[in-house]
């Protein structure tokens, strides 16, 4: 059995209908032939919320239960549910329609709740996993992206499951099963570059040739980024970054970079995509010499226009430059100091860090990953000017 979306336009006509989400299809899978065989059945159309997708089916007490994501990944997100005596239906809807949703609770801490499935522990306790967002007030922007939640489920006399705390709105605190204990996170994580591979916390833009972007062996103990295309390029941009995991955090790095032109820049960035980022970098200015500059794209979709909050920048001495960024909810501040100093100096104004979020730029439904913080280098001369980074740290504030 395999399930997929139905693209037949005439199948459903509901208020939330969309031509790419008009029902869940089911077709038999032949494991020997390794292909789908037989007729295709449209088994579940969801509710009037629409955008039905992400289906799971499980069998319990003689019933086939189907869960589906509805409402898209924004603030109308939900898990709808149905059941049938046969896998091909027809499926009757849950009396409450939805097992999990925050769509009618705008003040709840956990929003965008949906897209999950039912699971059981070895001792038979029921839980449902789901996606969610934790928006920052007042603009309701999710800098942490789509996160994963889990809710305790109890089965009722009518044969339907419901969240154990008595509401479809997900609970913030959920009792752990059995002897399970939360995983403790370190407040500060420091990364060195002494290995042949990057720490798994780091990510970069997808490429079949990562060696064109970075190396941990070209200079032992350092991460070398080779400057490629400009900030925000969707093609070949040297960016190595890790997820933002907290609404309040600080990240630091040390960069060695000797630019030969203003077209070469390397530094530290709070980044989502080409339409929403803030970056502080070392570059060259024709009268000031080597300088620090700030480049921002505060959600300018679709143009991707840049702001320069400190204009041509501030002059800095030769040598290694220490850079830091602090994000406190919606506010972002950059800092720096030169090698041999210990006192950090704030650079530029407080910026809108909340725009580096799922909802920033294109708006709701446009993005899901959450913000990143990391190191970048670009060289739009095409010369591939390299920048060396000595260590990186991330601290929860």
Question: Could you characterize the architecture of this molecule?
Answer:
With 397 residues, this protein is mainly beta. It folds into 2 domains: 162 residues, Tachylectin-2, Chain A, CATH 2.115.10.20; 209 residues, Sandwich (Jelly Rolls), CATH 2.60.120. The protein is built from no helices and 26 strands. The chain is elongated. It starts with a strand and ends with a strand. 41% of the residues are buried. The N terminus is likely disordered.
Which key features would you list for this structure?
mainly beta, Tachylectin-2, Chain A, Jelly Rolls, 2 domains, eight-stranded antiparallel sheet, disordered N terminus
List the helices and strands and how they pair.
Blueprint: E1 2-5, E2 24-30, E3 35-44, E4 53-60, E5 63-70, E6 78-84, E7 92-101, E8 111-120, E9 126-133, E10 147-155, E11 161-163, E12 188-191, E13 202-204, E14 214-215, E15 223-226, E16 238-243, E17 248-256, E18 264-273, E19 276-285, E20 289-298, E21 314-315, E22 321-328, E23 331-338, E24 345-352, E25 372-379, E26 386-396
Antiparallel strand pairs: 1-2, 2-3, 4-5, 5-6, 6-7, 8-9, 9-10, 10-11, 12-26, 13-16, 14-15, 15-26, 16-25, 17-22, 17-26, 18-19, 18-25, 19-20, 20-21, 22-23, 23-24
């Amino acid at each position: 059995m395999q399930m997929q979306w139905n693209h037949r336009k005439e199948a459903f006509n509901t208020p939330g209908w969309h031509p790419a989400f008009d029902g869940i299809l089911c077709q038999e899978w032949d494991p020997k032939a390794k292909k789908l065989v037989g007729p295709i059945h449209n088994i579940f159309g969801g509710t009037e919320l629409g955008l039905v997708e992400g289906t799971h089916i499980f069998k319990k007490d003689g019933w086939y239960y189907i869960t589906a994501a509805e409402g898209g990944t924004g603030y109308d997100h939900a898990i709808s549910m149905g059941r049938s005596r046969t896998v091909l239906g027809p499926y009757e809807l849950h009396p409450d329609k939805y097992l999990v949703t925050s769509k009618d609770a705008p003040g709840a801490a956990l929003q965008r709740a949906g897209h999950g499935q039912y699971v059981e522990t070895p001792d038979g306790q029921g839980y449902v996993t789901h996606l969610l967002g934790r928006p920052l007030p007042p603009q309701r922007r999710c800098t942490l992206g789509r996160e994963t939640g889990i809710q305790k489920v109890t089965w009722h006399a009518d044969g339907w499951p419901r969240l154990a705390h008595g509401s479809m709105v997900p609970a913030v605190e959920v009792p752990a099963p059995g002897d399970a204990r939360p995983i403790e996170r370190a407040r500060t994580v420091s990364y060195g570059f002494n290995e042949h591979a990057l720490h798994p916390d780091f990510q970069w833009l997808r490429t079949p040739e990562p060696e064109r972007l970075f190396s941990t062996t070209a200079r032992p103990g350092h991460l070398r980024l080779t400057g490629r295309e400009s900030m925000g390029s969707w093609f070949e941009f040297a960016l190595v970054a890790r997820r933002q995991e907290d609404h309040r955090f600080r990240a630091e790095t040390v960069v060695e970079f000797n630019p030969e032109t203003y077209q070469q820049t390397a530094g530290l960035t709070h980044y989502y995509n080409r339409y929403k980022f803030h970056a502080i970098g070392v570059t060259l200015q024709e009268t000031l010499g080597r300088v620090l500059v700030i480049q921002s794209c505060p959600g300018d979709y679709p143009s991707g226009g840049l702001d320069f909050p400190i204009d041509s920048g501030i002059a800095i001495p030769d040598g290694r430059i220490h850079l830091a960024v602090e994000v406190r909810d919606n506010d972002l501040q950059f800092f720096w100091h030169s090698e041999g100093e210990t006192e950090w100096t704030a650079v530029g104004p407080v910026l809108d860090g909340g725009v580096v979020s799922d909802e920033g730029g294109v708006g709701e439904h446009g993005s899901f990953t959450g913000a990143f913080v990391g190191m970048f280098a670009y060289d739009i001369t095409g010369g591939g000017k390299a920048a060396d980074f000595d260590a990186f740290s991330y601290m929860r504030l």
